[in-house]
Amino acid sequence: MEQTLFSSDFRLGILGGGQLGKMMLYTTRKWDIQTYVMDNDDTAPAFEGCTVFFEGDIMDYEAVMEFGRQVDVLTIEIENVNVQALADLEAEGIAVSPSSRVLNQIRNKARQKSFYQEQQIATADFQIHKAATRQHDRSYPFIWKSAEGGYDGKGVKVIRSADDLKDLPAVECIYEDIVGFEMELAVIVARNSSGDMKTYPVVEMEFHPEANQVEYVICPARVSNAVSQKARELALKVSKAFDHVGLLAVELFLTKSGDLLVNEVAPRPHNSGHYSLEGAVTDQFEQHLRCVLNLPLGSTDTVKPAVMVNLVGAEGHTGNVIYDGIEEILSMPGVTPHIYGKKQTRPFRKMGHVTVIADDIETARGLAEEVKGKIKVVAASV
After folding, report:
1. What is the C-alpha to C-alpha distance for residues 144 and 161, in angstroms, rounded to an integer?
2. pLDDT in the model for residue 2
3. Closest by alpha carbon to 272, among 205, 209, 338?
4. Global confidence as pTM
5. Right CATH number for 2-96 from 3.30.70.260, 3.40.190.10, 3.30.565.10, 3.40.50.20?
6. Can you give the residue ranges of every domain in the chain?
7. In the CATH scheme, what is the homologous superfamily, with its name and number, of domain 125-177?
């Protein structure tokens, strides 16, 4: 089958047209693979780069069924899709990766956390509730997470007292212990349908204190070889438990006592792997496509130490976007900006990222700090 993917009638479908979809298209254009994309916004980042764009709601059963029947292989760039439609497309013989079964386990955080418990995979202690309630046995403070729909810091709140539970949405949720961690790590696992698996190097994630978004991703993580090896082994264990096809980004807490706990996973390309566009032999977006098309996996080796800087909308700025300072960072060695193509900015909206590569990680981290100070994502008129 592999030989018929390229410059042929073969059609790859992607549900979701955001920046992850756009960056997958870097590879499909390079390889000349016909790519169909569906999103409900015809200004979505992936609109320009695909072969055919369908305007439709990826949560709508009929829309996903109609779209899926027109492609040979279907993948996603976001978990919030109609899983029942994916299951029915699989029953009709359409190859869906990750599968509806895997997505169903992962997209709901309550099911995901229960899965770790069943599989004896270490994770922070938690309780599941049908809605936020004051009737619980947690000690304050703890973390409230909505079971579905949360991302980029949304659907997550630190609960310091009973008053903090008042205005939360009436949805299924998790009450989770706060973990005393040394740092947050991530490992991306690649797995194709033949069962071949590879892990990317362990990365370290630094978060924005207010927005609860990743601000920097550092590769390799500044941890010992023993911790790195343990993290990659744990990520492989998680991947094998889910039996997924595609990429699986495994987010981990390294506790102050040296233990590793699984926080959560994403069955797709992930913010923690954006550094790979310039920092790895095979970037995560190409690797995801190699997985879902059952092609040989590419090398996950690091080309050079790399730091990824997220570009998010500045506070107080909403409107037509301007990347103030981009010319200045383009003059810096080893610095590559990726602009996602979203025309409108708003506070903390992900608008792009910058990869910084250097001969050593401390130099790259220092340059990343400079980049952060030089470029601002602002509105044309505030």
Report:
1. 12
2. 58
3. 205
4. 0.95
5. 3.40.50.20
6. 2-96, 125-177, 180-303, 305-382
7. ATP-grasp fold, A domain (3.30.1490.20)
Which of these, 275, 376, 270, 272, lies nearest to 335 by C-alpha position? 275
Which residues lie below 8 Å from residue 228, measured CB to CB, with a gap of 6+?
201, 202, 220, 221
pLDDT in tens, 49-77: 999 999 999 999 999 999 999 999 999 99
In this structure, which amino acid lies at residue 354?
V
**pLDDT confidence of 168, banded at 50, 70, 90?**
very high
CATH code of the domain made up of 305-382: 3.30.470.20
Count of other CB atoms within 10 angstroms of residue 149 = 14
b/e code 2-14 from CB counts within 10 Å (16+ = b): eeebeeeebbbbb
Token pair recorded at residue 16: 């979701």
Determine the average pLDDT of the residues in 328-333: 97
pLDDT bucket at 153, cuts 50 / 70 / 90: low
pLDDT at 190 over 60: yes
Name the least confident of 148-152, 290-294, 314-318, 366-370. Answer: 148-152
Take residue 209 and report the two structure tokens written for it.
């204190």
In angstroms, the Cα distances linking 116 to 7, 126, 151, 262, 355 are 42, 11, 20, 8, 33
Residue type present at position 285: F
Closest by Cα among 96, 30, 26, 40 to 284: 26
Per CATH, domain 180-303 is 3.40.50.1820: no
Same fold? 125-177, 180-303: no
